[in-house]
Amino acid sequence: MPIWKLHGNGRTVAPGDVVRPDERLNWGATVAIGAQHVVAMFGATFLVPVLTGFPVSTTLLFSGIGTLLFLIVTRNKLPSYLGSSFAFIAPVTAATASQGMGSALAGIVAVGVMLAIIGFVVQFAGIAWIDRLMPPVVAGAIVALIGFNLAPVAWTNFQQQPLTATITLCSVILFSVLFRGFLGRISIFLGVVVGYLVAVISGEIDYSAVADAPWIGLPEFHLANFAAPGTWNVIAMFLPVVLVLIAENVGHVRGVATMTDASINRHTGRALIADGLATTLAGAYGGSGTTTYGENIGVMAATRVYSTAAYWVAGSFAILLSLSPKVGAVFNSIPPGVLGGVTTALYGLIGIIGIKIWVDNRVDFSRPVNQYTGAVALVMAIAGFTMQWGEFQLGAIVLAAAAALVIYHLGNAIARWRGSGADDGGPIPAVGQLGGDPH
Question: What is the pTM of this model?
Answer without folding.
Answer: 0.75
